[in-house]
Each structure stands twice: as C-alpha cells, then as structure tokens.
C-alpha cells in the first residue's frame, strides 16, 4: 500500500464543530475528500446544511448537519446521539468551534471573559469529553482540538488576553486527555494555527486594519490559507498517526519561532 492509500479515511466517521465556515469547513471538506463520512456541527443549522450540500455535490460521502451549542452539555450529548444514530460509530472528532475577543485587559468584563472561556475552553472540553467516552467504548479514536499560536506567544498589536488564555487551556487540557487515554487507544492532539485568511477574519472590520501589520511580522510575510491545515488534520485523523498523541502542531509561518 502506497503512502496516498495509507492516508485515506475510507469508512471512518467524523464530526467537525464550527464546521459551517472557515477552518472548520475547510477541514470537513478535506476529511470528506479523504473518504470519511462527516457531520457538520454548528450553532447555525442553515449554514451547516449549506456546507453539507456543497461537500456532497463534490463527493459521495454520507454527510450530516447537526445544530448544537457546544457550551451546553445537553446539546452536546444530543449531538453525539444524533451522530451515532446516523453513523453507528465515531472515529474522528475535530473540536474546532471558537470565538475571538479583542479588548484591553483593563477594559475587559467578567461577562466577556467568561463567554470566551466558555466557548473556547469549556465547549472544547465538553465535545472532546463526549467524543472520548464514545471512543473509549469502541476501543479507539482520534480527537483533534483547535488551539492557536496565541497559546504560545502574545499577539500584537491587538489585545486578546482571554482568547490566548482559552487556547493555552485547550493545549494543557488536550495533553492531559492524551495521557489519560493513551493506553486505551484514544489519541488527542491539537493544531495551533497562526493568522489564517478565513472569510471571517478578512471581513471583520476590527481585524481588517491589522492584516498589514501581521504580514510584516510573519516571517513568510503572508497569512496562512485554511487549506494549509488540511494535511496535518487528515494525518491526525487517520491510522498513519497511531503513535502521535499529546502533540501540538503549530502551522503559523514561523511566527512563534521568535
């Protein structure tokens, strides 16, 4: 079997949270192109359905749109039940949904701080935990959590203390999950993207003026493209990465090298 065949995900069942747009949509497309059946999980069901239709138009996989607020344990459990009812099992969980928040520390509020932590850290915990429980019963699986280069450095010129703290928490949490579940064949890894040229970033009026500054600071002098995360996600989802767990993969154009 050649390397391309070994990277295939035929027969695997996956879900992607925040899968209706941006990084989530790109990774969901890559998983489907590699052969996996994929559930698009998003708080916006209509957007999830549109993404499902787009992917199905180009592939022949089984796709599913699921609405879920990842901060709600009840909705996360319902999401898992729906996926298991349709797919029968769960092999890959890409826990990606998250939000940003740019404000000076002295002007942040506990309400806004808690909102970011609740979505980015608590929501990732709930979805990874729920997926892990299924995979432990099955005898294995791969969980991939989206962290950020912001977990490793302090971003400039924008102020995003709560976001950085939430993503650092995702990495620490994922490492602990990886160690606890390592002897039961459930792998947990994180991907830490740098500045990515997603539709949301490029259209955000707050972030748009910062792009020129970012590109000056990034050693490769450009933002990343969401598709440049595809290969590492497909690798982590499949059996080629069976000895890879507890790792964090920075895809940031060398931004965190200094």
Task: Identify the notable features of this structure and list them briefly.
alpha/beta, 7-stranded parallel sheet, 258 residues, 9 helices, 45% helix, 7 strands
Counting helices, strands and paired strands, the structural category is alpha/beta
| SSE succession | HEHEHEHEHEHEHHHE
Number of helices: 9
Report the span from N to C terminus: 40 Å
Sheet having the most strands = 7 strands, parallel
Strand segment tally: 7
Percent helix, as a range, is: 40-55%
Widest beta sheet: strand line-up: 3-2-1-4-5-6-7
Query: What percent of residues are in strands?
Result: 5-15%
Question: Overview of this structure, please?
Answer:
The protein is globular and about 50 Å long. It has 258 residues and is α/β, with parallel strands linked by helices. The chain has nine helices and seven strands. The protein starts with a helix and ends in a 7-residue tail after the last strand. The model has no long low-confidence stretch (mean pLDDT 96).
């Amino acid at each position: 079997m050649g390397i391309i065949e070994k990277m295939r995900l035929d027969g695997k069942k996956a879900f992607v949270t925040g899968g209706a747009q941006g990084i989530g949509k790109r990774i969901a497309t890559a998983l489907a192109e590699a052969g996996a059946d994929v559930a698009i999980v998003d708080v916006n069901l209509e957007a999830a359905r549109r993404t499902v239709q787009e992917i199905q138009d180009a592939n022949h996989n089984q796709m599913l749109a699921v609405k879920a607020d990842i901060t709600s344990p009840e909705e996360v459990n319902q999401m898992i039940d729906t996926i298991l009812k349709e797919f029968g099992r769960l092999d890959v969980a890409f826990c990606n949904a998250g939000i940003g928040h740019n404000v000076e520390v002295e002007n942040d509020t506990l309400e806004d701080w808690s909102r970011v932590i609740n979505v980015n850290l608590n929501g990732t915990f709930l979805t990874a935990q729920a997926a892990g429980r299924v995979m432990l019963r099955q005898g294995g699986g791969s969980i991939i959590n989206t962290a950020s280069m912001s977990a490793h450095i302090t971003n400039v010129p924008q102020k995003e203390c709560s976001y950085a703290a939430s993503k650092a928490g995702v990495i620490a949490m994922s490492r602990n999950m990886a160690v606890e579940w390592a002897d039961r064949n459930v792998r947990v890894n994180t991907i830490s993207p740098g500045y990515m040229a997603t539709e949301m970033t490029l259209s955000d009026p707050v972030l748009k003026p910062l792009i020129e500054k970012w590109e000056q600071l990034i050693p490769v002098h450009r933002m990343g493209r969401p598709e440049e995360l595809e290969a590492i996600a497909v690798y982590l989802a499949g059996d080629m990465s069976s000895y890879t767990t507890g790792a964090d993969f920075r895809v940031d154009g060398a931004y965190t090298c200094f």
